[in-house]
Amino acid sequence: MPHNSAWGDKLASIGTIAAQPASGSVKITEASVNGRFFSMKFTFTAARVTVTDAAGSGSSGSLKIFDFNEGVVQVLGSSHTWSGFTEGSALTGAANDAAFVIAFGSAAADAGDGALTGTEVNFAATKSITLPSTGLNATTVTAAQTPLDGTATAVDLYLNWSGSAATIDANSTIDVTGSFYVWGFMGADD
After folding, report:
1. Residue 133, class by beta-carbon neighbours within 10 Å (0-12 exposed, 13-18 middle, 19+ buried)?
2. Which three-class secondary structure state does DSSP give residue 113?
3. What residue spans define the domains of the chain?
4. Nearest to 182 by CA among 36, 63, 74, 35
5. pTM of the predicted model as reported, rounded to 2 decimal places
């Protein structure tokens, strides 16, 4: 899949940006690759995440944003900040009142229980948001993580989202606006 950012040539040695969401955009607005070390800033502008009802336990959604090349991925740190969310009409009973968590991981969220754990958060820890304003414009920082073995199957990077049944229990969408920085090291595929 070709890069869709101005940073394509620099990033080719570590991977490619994933397909764009159904609406809005995900762009790499800063990038640096120095040998095997990398840093990237993803900017989300009303990027649509499809939300799936988990039948009584809540809802979850994921958006794949990057495909790493085969090799070991060592995340040295990351941070994410969110400035806005637009709920789909079926997401909650009233507009702009959802409570959820958002994070980044190497696997898509699948529980829909208002929590993200394990491979759903191995790039960046969860951030709790309660709309309309709690948790917005505050940065969540994550320290180095356990290396991810992408030597047999390349590592993917997902934005993950999950809401509990108390506030979110429907098939819908949520559009996200904010940024995600990640920096790390790409190990050899041997």
Report:
1. exposed
2. coil
3. 8-186
4. 74
5. 0.91
